[in-house]
Amino acid sequence: MHTDNMLSSLTISQAHEKLKKREITSVELTQSCIDRIESIDKKLNAVVHRNFDRALEEAKKVDDSAEWNSALTGIPYLAKDVYCEAGVKTTGCSNMLRSKDYIPPYDSTTTKRLSAAGAISIGKTNTDEFTMGGSTETSCYGVTRNPWDTNRVAGGSSGGSAAGIASDEALFALGTDTGGSIRQPASFCGIAGIRPTYGRTSRYGVMSMASSLDTIGPICKTVEDLAIVLEAIAGHDPMDGTTSDRPVPKYSGALKKDLKGVRVGLPKEYFIEGLNSDTEHAIREAAKILASLGATVTEMSLPHTKYALATYYVLCPCEVSSNMARYDGIRYGHGVSKPKDLLDYYQRARSEGFGTEVKRRIMIGTYALSAGYYDAYYLKAQKVRTLICEDFTNAFKNFDLIISPVAPSPAFKVGAHVNDPVAMYLEDVFMDGAVMAGIPALSVPCGISKEGLPIGLQMMGPQWGEAGLLSAAYAYEQATEWHTKKPAL
Fold first, then answer.
1. Tens-digit pLDDT profile for residues 167-181
2. Mind spelling out the 3-state secondary structure of the chain?
3. Domain 12-310+378-484 belongs to what architecture?
């Protein structure tokens, strides 16, 4: 019997080796994660639903079968509270579903694929309500706190997933990235996270915010772990018509430690007024390290970058307005008693069930889609989106990789932007370009600020270029020690 109660600090690849050699069991590994959650999550508020008993039963079955065919067999993970799992409470961290403890009758494709690989879901992580926010402060369960400094946010909307992995509450977590919601929390918490190409992973069974922008991906302790998880969850899904039937490369087998011949672009539009000096220094130092590994790093331009944020915040609320219409409190969700009529029922169910940010986006989106404003806002934003896509298409004719900051500064304090939605939206400024273009982008740790907070390096690749992106991130990670730094909880 293994007695180390911090088995939860292992990476996926380390745990897989120990499981295969029978140095540890999946039950011990799962119990270690459970113990860790129970001992520290009161400080963080990262895990909002716990399915520990079921997880331990599954771990026992894995140990009994003793087949370690997949690197994920017997590995405990956390899923953001928008991933449906049959029989497991899933509320989108919204009172709309929390008031009736919504329990899905089916599994998302991603959790089903992980289950088939032998991975074990142990709980759901905190998120901004229906993923709308950049700090988890819109969650009906309250804010998730950053393990590096509990007075600061862990980022959003996948803040619970990032805080959980940074503090070793599980070996990996699932997040979603619509406008940066995997990359920003990964950066704020000093770990790795990837937003794959739109259509590389299935969105079936994941609660939608903006269907043409949402992507799902992993948050992990290392780039190698990102490759392992992405390999398992990527690929065509008949339940999601936007997924590609392109074969899934063996990402974990393509990781290299050098960057000979790789052309890296440094876009001048991402080094703007307001960029934190520690963040700029860390990114420029990372560029030097990439050059020392054999890459050629050249300044370049993405001319329509300045429009990406505004374009995102027209298109995203339009899709929110449409997607949130399903929450009417009749088939499921928050209900009301003794309504005067159907209109009164709808008004009360939605005004009581939804929080301020969700209402704000529904209102903006409904306005932008209304007669007389559709051409001025939505249609124009779609045209600008095309120009941003073309910027990236042209850039990737000359570059294999584009690097930038993830966010303008390290993690901000809880409450800093709570009464200023525009300031919160500006936190996305470096991430929305990749979203508009539907390209893969990841965050990998690249520094620590003077205040002791992690800084992330954003790497962006061409569509379907995850293999090259992961390989470059792995080479950088292996040449530095930032990914080994841990918060002192």
1. 999 999 999 999 999
2. CCCCCCHHHCCHHHHHHHHHCCCCCHHHHHHHHHHHHHHHHHHHCCEEEECHHHHHHHHHHHHHHCCCCCCCCCCEEEEECCECECCECCCCCCHHHHCCCCCCCCCCHHHHHHHHCCCEEEEEECCCHHHCCCCCCCCCCCCCEECCEEEEECCCCCHHHHHHHHCCCCCEEEEEECCCCCHHHHHHHCCEEEECCCCCECCCCECCCCCCCCEEEEEECCHHHHHHHHHHHECCECCECCCCCCCCCCHHHHCCCCCCCCEEEEEHHHCCCCCCHHHHHHHHHHHHHHHHCCCEEEEECCCCHHHHHHHHHHHHHHHHHHHHHHCCCCCCCCCCCCCCCHHHHHHHHHHHHCCHHHHHHHHHHHHHHCCCCCHHHHHHHHHHHHHHHHHHHHHCCCCCEEEEECCCCCCCECCCCCCCHHHHHHCCCCCHHHHHHCCCEEEEEEEECCCCCEEEEEEECCCCCHHHHHHHHHHHHHHCCHHHCCCCC
3. Alpha-Beta Complex (3.90)
65 carries an active-site annotation: no
Catalytic residue among 157, 158, 449, 471: 157
What are the residue ranges in the chain where pLDDT is below 50? 1, 3
pLDDT digits (tens, 9 = 90+) for 259-272: 999 999 999 999 99
pLDDT digits (tens, 9 = 90+) for 121-164: 999 999 999 999 999 999 999 999 999 999 999 999 999 999 99
Q: Which of 8, 80, 252, 409 is catalytic?
A: 80
The answer to whether 288 is a known catalytic residue is no
In this prediction the pTM is 0.97
How does pLDDT run across 25-38, given as a tens digit for each residue?
999 999 999 999 99
Return the domain boundaries, the chain.
12-310+378-484
Query: From the candidates 121, 158, 181, 321, which is the catalytic residue?
Result: 181
Q: Is 181 a catalytic residue?
A: yes
